[in-house]
Amino acid sequence: MNAPPRPGLLSIAVPCFNEQHSIQPFIAAITPVLEALGRRYEIVFVDDGSTDNTLPLLVALASTHAHIKVISLTRNFGKEAALTAALDFVSGAAVIPMDVDLQDPVELIAPMVAKWQAGADVVLAHRQSRPNDAVVKRWAARLFYRLISKLSAIPIPENVGDFRLMDRKVVDCVRQLPEKTRFMKGILAWPGFQTETIEFTRPPRQAGSSKWPLWKLFNYALDGIFSFSTAPLRVWTYIGSALSFFSLGYFLWVVVKTLVLGIDVPGYASTLAVILFFNGIILIGLGILGEYLGRVFIEVKGRPIYLVRSKVGFGNKD
Ligand code: UDP
Ligand code: MG
Q1: Which end of the chain is more exposed for a tag (fewer CB within 10 A), N or C?
Q2: What is the DSSP annotation of 207-227?
Q3: What is the pTM (predicted TM-score) of this model?
Q4: What's the Cα-to-Cα distance from 172 to each of 88, 94, 183, 270, 302, rounded to whole Å?
Q5: What average pLDDT does the segment 242-268 reach?
Q6: 19 CB less than 6 Å from ligand 1?
Q7: Widest CA span of the chain, in angstroms?
Q8: Which atom of ligand 1 is nearest to the CA of 100?
């Protein structure tokens, strides 16, 4: 190999919420893969306020395995916050965020590390197909990526989740983004750096159930658009300008018509239709403004993204 190999710890960052049935299979699958790499590694689990046996299981694992560490959050903060916590506490030279449900294949870790060794700072895992997703979900995902790639100022890679390898310098950049609305697809893509891609097919969940019903995904998509684009605000400048332009034309036409043909009283239905239509338009505009105002409100409060209840496996200094 010509490129200088990158030494140092490999960190796996794993958010967990009510995953008591997924943890053992995850450990069983990932351990041989990590051991085979022949480098130091750590697995940092973040318990996102689970109400089942997840936390005791993780703590037991951490007490018997030196390379397993656990951060326990005070309540459920959501996957994005849990992943943010994980990125704050990992100490690796390279970091791979993974879901615990084995939907992110462990076989990809070795090729990711190889590409990182060869010089890539980010190695994305690109989902080739979504054969296990419902048609509606696939279709919605397509539409979302098309929309956001048009609207957002930074390129957000299509069909790439949080599963990726990031070099330490990329993680440090990601950690500088303080926003409270954690649209991770965008946040992780924001730093850029030299990026490589690996293709894979996403398998179905091994155990437990997904916490992402369709309505939640829809809200997540809106979060993405409102967090990474101001186009929805700007569009009102265009709509307003176009409407004013047409209104002026219509006004002139009405004046001329009145001067030439005299006053023409009928027109109740059309007046009502116009009023209702424009009230609708104005309310949509207000709603969009509200979306951004709400986000400014959340940011201005400056509350922490997550709260840590306890840490296990991080040594005595904690
Ligand atoms: N997760 C979490 N907090 C939550 C929801 C999910 O930490 O509030 C974790 C979950 O335990 C899993 C990962 O995030 O490790 C992905 O969750 P899920 O499998 O439900 O999402 P999907 O794969 O359907 O996108
Ligand atoms: Mg999953």
Answers
A1: N
A2: SS--S--HHHHHHHHHHHHHH
A3: 0.81
A4: 9, 11, 17, 59, 20
A5: 84
A6: yes
A7: 94
A8: 15
